[in-house]
Structures are given as C-alpha cells and as structure tokens.
C-alpha cells in the first residue's frame, strides 16, 4: 500500500504516515465505542445520547489523552459507566442542574481546548471558535434541561457534561505539568 500511494498518487512518506495515523485513530475510536455499545446494549438509546453529547464536547474542547489503547478504553468506559450507571442515582434538582451547567459552560470556555501532545498547536482563530462552540453546546443543553421534562437521557447528558468538565480540568493540569495518562 505504501508503494502504491507513493507511485500512483505521489504521496510523501509524511503524508502516508498521516493517513496511517488517521485510519488507526478512527479504528481505535470506533472499536472503543462499539465495545462500550455492546456493554451498554440494554440501555443503547441513553448510551448513544451520552456519546453524542460527549463527542460534541470532546471535538470542541479536547480533554484527557492516553498513551495506550487499553488505558484510553478504561478511562472512556469509566466515564460512560459513571454517566450512565452511577451518577444518575444522585438526585439533583433542576435548579442545581442549571447552575452546574452554567458553571460547566464557563469552565469549558475558559479552560478549553486541551489538545494532545501530538496535535499541532491551534491558531487563535481556531481556539476562539472551539471555545464558542463548546459554550453554545452547553448553553443549548442548559436550555434543553430547562424546557424538557426530566428523563434518563437528559440526566445522563447532564452528567456527561459535568464529567467532561472535570476531566478537562484534570487534562489542563496534567498538560501544564507535562504528564500524560
């Protein structure tokens, strides 16, 4: 494949390495989501909703980045397990949810984005765009929480946002220290 891309399309070794990294990353992420989907199959709708909220935030503000697949899977699984199976048992009234979402909105705006070491630095325009994007995502969720009746999916999304904000804070601290999971 390497030679084919070089001869047929005149790709450089660097471009081929980028393609390989992209495909490896996509396969890794999809496999983790699929495995967790199988694990949470009895609550698949709520799982898909939680993943959608998480992906919207994660693609905006980044977060923790692990060196190894198994570590990444375990962190991701713990995150989803907490959001779907543990945290919803903590009863939180709607006012506290709204205040918490507002605080998360501010934290994500001021802390994010936190990219991995291998990610090239973002330019100022991109940083501003993703900060606003995360702000709007959480604002829309805050609005949704306000107008919608309480449901297991809404509660799971709330906890995803809270957990995302907490892991973003941890990621920022670790990045400042130069550490990685």
Please characterize this protein's 3D structure.
It is built from seven helices and no strands. The chain is 77% helix and 0% strand. With 181 residues, the protein is mainly alpha-helical. The chain is globular, with a radius of gyration of 18 Å.
Main sheet overview? none
What is the string of helix and strand elements?
HHHHHHH
Instruction: State the helix count.
Output: 7
N-to-C CA distance: 32 Å
Name the overall outline.
globular
Low-confidence stretches: none
| Helix/sheet category | mainly alpha
Average pLDDT across residues?
Answer: 91
**Number of DSSP E strands:** 0
Radius of gyration: 18 Å
Helix content: over 70%
Layout: helices, strands, pairs:
Layout: H1 2-9, H2 13-39, H3 44-61, H4 69-86, H5 94-111, H6 124-147, H7 152-177
Helix pairs in contact: 3-6, 3-7, 4-7, 5-6, 5-7, 6-7
Keywords:
181 residues, mainly alpha, 77% helix, globular
Q: Summary?
A:
The protein is 77% helix and 0% strand. The longest helix is centred in the first third of the chain and has 27 residues.
């Amino acid at each position: 494949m390497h030679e084919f891309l070089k001869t047929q399309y005149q790709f450089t070794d660097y471009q081929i390495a980028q393609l390989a990294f992209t495909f490896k990353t996509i396969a890794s992420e999809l496999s983790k989501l699929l495995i967790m989907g199988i694990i949470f199959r009895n609550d698949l709708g709520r799982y898909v909703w939680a993943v959608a909220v998480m992906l919207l935030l994660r693609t905006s503000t980044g977060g923790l980045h692990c060196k190894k697949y198994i570590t990444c899977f375990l962190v991701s699984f713990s995150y989803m397990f907490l959001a779907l199976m543990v945290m919803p048992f903590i009863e939180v009234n709607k006012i506290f949810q709204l205040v918490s979402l507002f605080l998360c909105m501010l934290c994500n705006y001021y802390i994010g984005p936190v990219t991995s070491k291998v990610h090239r630095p973002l330019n100022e325009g991109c940083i501003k765009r993703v900060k606003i994007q995360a702000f709007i995502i959480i604002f829309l969720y805050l609005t949704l929480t306000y107008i919608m009746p309480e449901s297991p999916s809404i509660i799971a999304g709330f906890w995803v946002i809270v957990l995302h904000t907490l892991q973003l804070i941890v990621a920022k601290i670790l990045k400042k220290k130069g550490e990685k999971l």
